[in-house]
What we know:
The protein contains three helices and four strands. By secondary structure, it is an alpha+beta fold. It has a single domain, classed as Alpha-Beta Plaits (2-Layer Sandwich). It has a four-stranded antiparallel β-sheet. The longest helix has 16 residues, at 14-29. The chain starts with a strand and ends in a 24-residue tail after the last helix.
Amino acid sequence: MRVIVFFDLPSVTDSDKREYRNFRNHLIKSGFIMMQESVYSKIALNATNVKSITEAIRQNKPPKGIVQLMVVTERQYTTIEYIVGDINTNIINSDERLIIL
């Protein structure tokens, strides 16, 4: 499963910018990878893991703005179609259970 976080946070005042940086740093330290600006994803092993990830995001959410979560299966995630842009080859995008590098 993948947990995908979408967020749109204000960055007008210095405190807004600080909250934005803190939230983004929390996602990175928690193992999320950036798919594009303000869209991050992380692999979750099971529904219990998804609940703990969701709870951690709720505890670290900024006071303003919008944060959205979506959970998709690996099979759904691998069907992402890239209309414009290049696929990042550093990230393995496969629904295989075992990947040999």
